[in-house]
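Re: that chain you flagged

S.,

Sorry for the slow reply, it's been a week of failed gels. I finally had a moment to sit down with the sequence you sent. For the record, here it is as I used it:
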Amino acid sequence: MTMNQSDLVSPDRRNLLGAAGLGLAAGIGGAWTEPVAAADFADSPDLQDPWMREPEQAFRNFLRVQGDLSGLIAPQWWRGAYLAIYPDRNPELLFRMEGCEMKRIVDLGGGRYEFQYQIFTSMKDPVTNETLNGKRWRNPITGKELTVEPNTSAANRIVSLSDRGIVETREGRDFEAVIHSFWTAQGPFAMHAGFKDRPSKRPLPLKAYATSFFDRAAAADFDAPRLDVRFSTNFIAPFQRWMEMPEDAGHAVWHASGHKARDVASLPEGYMKELMAYKPEMPDWIGKDGKA
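Prediction finished late last night. Pasting the structure tokens below so you have them in one place:
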């Protein structure tokens, strides 16, 4: 299987009421190759299109950027770097990464949408690019030899538009996050930058910041169920538990860039092999046509 070159992600009530993912996660090349003159960026005083000031339209574009309103899986594919941020020395590149956040959007009616996530990230050698999942690795802080574990997770979230902007909740759980997004436009591109407030009980530090790029004309035409997107993201978090880092060692920064792939079949064969080895339930979740 090969990547689709043409495949391209991500949410304000003033710019969607001021309101990921991948989400997560993150890379801008490939979709638009024509050079852009500096004059193309001087479109308007505030560099915004009318739909960006209309909460309902901006919310629909948030959904179309994040996934596919037809119910098909939208794989948000990325490659990037896993950096160690230490308190007493310069940052260190610990791993390369390649991963995907497969996302399905289900319309629940009444303006509520369920986001179903399946996430799998492979850790790779920063020099050779060898996949390290299941292999031995020496922690540079402790000197301890450990077995590398991929990052795997799954989640369901409910998103809706409120007077506070986009709100994300979990059914039956005490969980709520407000998504803050900022829309702008330059030349042929529309862009979105965003982050979300996470519950205060989560471990610190924890925050994701993402910027997405997509076709400006397509964003103003609301007939299509999805938008093709390129994105770049930074995720700040504690070190992975399997790394057995001391509490005062610092934290990690995940930096990644990628695109929303056209479908699951367009993902690299090597990545899919690793995914299925660690998450054998995925064929049932994906379904024959990319729907549950």
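What I noticed first: The helical segments are 14-17, 55-66, 216-219, 269-278, 282-286.

Talk soon,
D.
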